[in-house]
Amino acid sequence: MKLSTALFLATTVGVTAAFQSPSLSRTVRSINNTNQQKKSNVGGGSVKSSSAMWAATMDGTANDVDVAGGVAGRRKKTKQERLELASKGLQVHVIGLSIHHAQVEVREKLAIPEAEWNEQSNIICSTGQVEEAAILSTCNRFEIYFAASDAHEANARVMEYLAERSGLPVSVLRRNIFMLEGDDAVWHLMRVAGGLDSLVVGEGQILSQVRQCHLHSIEEDGCGGKVLSRLLNNAVAAGKRVRSETNISKGSVSISSAAVELSEHMCMQDLNLPFSEARLAVVGAGTMTRLLVTHLASRGLERIAIVNRSMQRPQELQEQFPDVDIEIALVDQLWDVVGKSDIVYTATSSTDYVIDENLLEQNGQTGGRPLMLVDIAVPRNVGPGSGKIDGVVPYNVDDLKAVVAKNTAMRQREMIEAENLLREESDSFIGWRESLSAIPTINQLQERANMFRQEELKKCTRKLSQNDNFTDRELEAVERLSRGIVNKMLHGPMAHLRRAESVEGKQAALKELSSMFRLEDDESGRGGRRRRR
User: Where does this protein have coiled-coil stretches (predicted)?
Assistant: First the structure.
């Protein structure tokens, strides 16, 4: 018998014997047989665990958030560290405010510009109880998605952050906040990305905003991590599918279009004027204004005045809409434009009121001349006292619900189809998340297998290397063979562990593998300890 053949046989027998307990071979065969029977189910199914909406509670005081070692002090975790952390039971949570749960006065207190999303996420993570965080702040919602292993402590820290940032009494936050965890948090984000949780069902802007949230979270200074980056990526994929595979995004599907619908519907009642004859102005020249102009132009309105801090963006809009007569004015000419308009839409990012009661009084808006103010900005651009002025009729985003109700009724059938698609993406993420619990056992099993392989290989090579005919090339060949044998032996058990389709099934598989391979005793076979054969 050749030396390489003898060594191969000796190594095979040694490695196999090192693993086997009396019932191991039967158990491994059983698992492999089970895998063969379940091949048609590979990748299918998902694990679901329900959780209820929590009541937001605090002790009545808001402690300062400890930001020591914040953005600058946080070391970026390696890919392996993020994976190991994710496998230790990090749960997904979301705490936030939305147009469905909170008044605009509360939402504007917590609104965060996109440029600050990562900075604020790092502040939240620096509290020590939150491992990953991502912020989604839009005109209609403010949401913090985060991953943590201790739900109670993590939620307490995030609530402290909200109280500190907003300066609002805890009692006010408690009435307006919503909190979800686990599968409920995952499902909420899927519905958000799909446009099903929007004021206007199916609107497309939110998908772009969720995509930006994902991109920011995975930047160098982001705080996304393994779990949230995967979740947000799945959410973006879900939103894309909803819009490409259903008709839910057809028609009026944005806050801007709802604002135009509202003003068109109320024009005769509030102004005693047909909408087609109304003189229109828009304050601001960002994305919302572009959408406003799009929807106004689609209704045949060809003259619009735009007031902005600079000329660049309004001029870009002039180029984008050559068939619309766009008049441009700077902010110091604000009243010149407002004073000769019938409907004024406000859509700026200003944190101060652009139009308020004082401005209207100072400029003579007290004679009862009809003026409709449609404020679609958060924080609000139109002061709450504007409605006290005779003839002025103000609307804000909360007033768009009547318009939305009509659109929602027409989209009920599409919503059912959309939710089926969202459920697939939600199940995909949940299945991936549950599979992470198997990683420590798989790693331990591989390490133990390699330890036994090296022990047995060392014994054989020590004996056979005394022969002058034994070459390094033969040793390398047998090394590869021994590694291949171990990998093939472990493939079935590890695949069985990954494919468990329920929490109970996965726990049972983990316990079974730990027992048969004696993984619960990490020191078995080490340090000269004698293993029973």
Answer: none
